[in-house]
Design brief:
Blueprint: H1 44-50, H2 54-60, E1 65-67, E2 74-80, E3 88-94, E4 111-113, H3 116-125, H4 132-145, H5 179-188, H6 209-226, H7 234-237, E5 269-275, H8 277-289, E6 294-299, H9 305-316, E7 320-326, H10 327-332, H11 338-347, E8 351-355, E9 367-371, E10 374-378, E11 393-398, H12 400-414, E12 418-419, H13 422-441, H14 445-470
Parallel strand pairs: 6-7, 7-8
Antiparallel strand pairs: 1-2, 2-3, 3-4, 5-11, 6-9, 8-12, 9-10, 10-11
Helix pairs in contact: 1-4, 2-4, 5-6, 8-9, 9-11, 11-13
């Protein structure tokens, strides 16, 4: 059955469903309601990266996840679908997921669901992505043994209620704060001013231990510095002068007039998210799909088709779509599909510009996307190969001051950039084709040596075998 993609436990739950619709009793009579396995290495960040529809997964934790009878190799759950028919899907967690050593394995190898989205649509992507039903089960397991998003500890005994009710609506002020930051802020809320004592998150094993400890220390220090001076007098609180945080004092003596000094902004905008490579590319497509007035993309390498298609669709909707890409790499670089993508964009109505570096020999190396008032910038290239790298990018909601600063920097990129023409694209493609033919027709001397050596060894062995036969 495994050979043909079927699960040996596919029918394991048939015949044991309860008459009430959900099964909570093992054949031995053990009550399984409200019980969730402990996964020591699981974190909210890991779940959010893997779950395609995190919002619906959080909604499903509120009464739609039920524990059912375990089988030999898996912990099983039943998740009630959000569709009108109320279809139920079985989510299976391989029992090896509870081991600390399984943290390095892909989640899809340990979590499965019978819904078409997980078994068909997400399987075709080739990524480690989970459906909302799997996400809901993992969130329930996480909240049952870890502090919830509100910072309150949840009980973990068999008699406790399901931990799915731990999720409560959050205010807009905490919308973009990390779960670790929210937990710390909740724990510090009722403490006196001053340096807080060390706060633990409960048992935490696996490769994320060190980073969690560092994050806790940083956020604890930040919150302590925010409330370092305690409540302010009424007269000072009523003053229009903005309160300066203690950790920002390092810029008090910063000389903005010095050579190569940065221009400091009073309020450039609001940081919304810090993203990985895959998250950056997906966020870029999302921004382009919602662009209304202007979209400016800068790139060094470019071959990701979904980004190109989203940029073309934005241009066809009437959005002013522009692309500034490095000239040297586009014409003669190693990204084989780059010129094809640029020609696709040019024909689709996107203004494609070939840009150079600041000085001779320099390159256009920025990777940014400006869509209306949102700015996505960082180290992620707009390529398929970048998805395998450790990258870091930021999504910023720009203020008016921030928009002016970003457009000022983009103005330097636009200087000296030349519009891509059909003739330039044709000459670039001819150059690439000639280079490919040259490599195939004239192998390197190293390859010639290897071939000659293999033939010499073969002839020597044949001669030895002939001599032995004659003897």
């Amino acid at each position: 059955m495994k050979k043909y993609g079927e699960s040996p436990e596919g029918n394991a739950l048939e015949g044991v469903w309860s008459h009430k619709g959900f099964i909570h009793d093992l054949p031995g009579g053990q009550n399984m309601e409200g019980m969730f396995p402990s996964i020591p290495w699981l974190s909210s960040d890991r779940i959010s990266r893997a779950t395609r529809n995190l919002k619906d997964a959080i909604t499903l934790t509120q009464g739609s996840v039920r524990r059912v009878a375990d089988t030999l190799m898996s912990h099983n759950f039943e998740v009630l679908s959000q569709q009108s028919g109320g279809k139920r899907y079985v989510v299976r967690l391989a029992k090896e997921i509870c081991q600390t050593t399984s943290s390095a394995l892909p989640l899809r190898s340990m979590v499965s669901c019978g819904c078409p989205g997980h078994s068909v649509a997400l399987a075709r992507t080739g990524e480690d992505d989970l459906c909302k039903h799997c996400g809901a089960v993992l969130l329930s397991c996480l909240m049952h043994y870890r502090p919830a998003l509100t910072g309150q500890l949840q009980p973990s005994g068999p008699s406790s209620q399901p931990a799915a009710s731990a999720i409560v609506p959050r205010s807009h002020a905490t919308l973009y704060r990390s779960p670790a930051h929210r937990s710390l802020a909740a724990a510090l809320k009722d403490k006196p001013h001053g340096s807080p004592e060390k706060i633990t998150f409960g048992p935490r094993d696996g490769p994320e231990t060190y980073m969690q400890q560092q994050t806790q220390a940083m956020l604890t220090l930040e919150d302590a510095q925010r409330c370092e001076h305690g409540p302010e007098p009424a007269a000072r609180a009523a003053s229009p002068e903005q309160k300066k945080l203690h950790f920002a004092s390092i810029f008090e003596d910063y000389d903005e007039e010095a050579e190569e000094a940065a221009t400091m902004l009073c309020n450039g905008g609001k940081l919304l998210s810090v993203l990985s490579s895959k998250q950056t590319q997906k966020m870029g497509v999302n921004l382009l799909n919602k662009a209304k007035e202007r979209a400016i993309l800068t790139a060094f390498t470019l071959d990701l088709l979904v980004v190109c298609n989203a940029l073309v669709e934005a241009a066809q909707r009437g959005v002013q779509a522009q692309l500034f890409v490095d000239k040297s790499h586009s014409l003669k670089g190693s990204t084989s599909a780059q010129m094809d993508r640029l020609e696709l964009l040019r024909r689709g109505g996107v203004e494609v510009y070939l840009a150079k570096g600041v000085t001779a020999g320099g390159i256009q190396h920025s990777k940014t996307l400006l869509v209306d008032g949102y700015y996505l910038c960082g180290s992620t290239n707009w390529t398929s190969s970048s998805r395998s790298n450790h990258e870091s990018s930021m999504l910023i909601e720009l203020s008016d001051e921030g928009k002016k600063a970003v457009m000022s920097k983009l103005g330097y990129v636009m200087q000296g950039a030349e519009l891509l023409t059909q003739e330039t694209a044709r000459r670039s493609q001819e150059y690439r084709d000639t280079r490919i033919r040259g490599r195939s027709a004239y192998p390197s001397p190293h390859r010639f040596g290897e071939t000659a050596r293999r033939f010499s060894i073969a002839r020597a062995r044949s001669r030895d075998a002939l001599l032995q036969a004659q003897v």
